[in-house]
């Protein structure tokens, strides 16, 4: 369950960072990613070709993640998103 919460938190964060668009585009990406992980029991590849720098909830310093992302695989995953609130600070710029 902790992994699922971490996945959802990172998905929400990185979806909003990776997509420059309006609320509907960001919500669609979050839902698509959630559907993918429910079906395939692994995360969607959402990292750039250069990878990413992340702060993880488990603590520690900045983690460098390669372009392949993190290989989180789940035995079981059944999470349905019920509510997503997106705040656009600068329109068309994420």
Short summary:
The protein is mainly alpha-helical. The chain is 37% helix and 6% strand.
Name the strands of the widest sheet in spatial order: 1-2
Q: What percentage of amino acids are in beta strands?
A: 5-15%
Q: Provide the structure class.
A: mainly alpha
Question: Looking at the structure, what is the overall shape?
Answer: globular
Number of domains: 1
Distance N terminus to C terminus?
29 Å
Low-confidence stretches: none
Separate helix tally? 2
Helix content: 25-40%
Radius of gyration: 13 Å
| Average pLDDT reading | 78
Number of strands: 2
Describe the sheet with the most strands. 2 strands, antiparallel
Q: What is the N-to-C order of secondary-structure elements (H for helix, E for strand)?
A: HHEE
Word description of this protein:
With 94 residues, this protein is mainly α. It has one domain. The protein has 2 helices and 2 strands. It has helices at residues 2-18, 23-40, and strands spanning 52-54, 63-65. It has a two-stranded antiparallel ribbon with strand order 1-2. A hairpin with an 8-residue loop joins strand 1 (52-54) and strand 2. Helix 1 runs antiparallel to helix 2 (23-40). The protein starts with a helix and ends in a 29-residue tail after the last strand.
């Amino acid at each position: 369950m902790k992994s699922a919460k971490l996945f959802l938190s990172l998905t929400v964060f990185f979806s909003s960072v990776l997509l420059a668009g309006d609320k509907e585009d960001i919500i669609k990406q979050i839902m698509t990613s959630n559907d993918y992980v429910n079906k395939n029991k692994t995360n969607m590849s959402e990292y750039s070709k250069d990878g990413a720098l992340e702060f993880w909830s488990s603590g520690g310093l900045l983690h460098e993640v390669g372009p392949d992302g993190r290989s989180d695989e789940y035995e079981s995953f059944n999470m349905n998103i019920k509510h997503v609130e997106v705040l656009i600070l600068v329109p068309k710029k994420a």
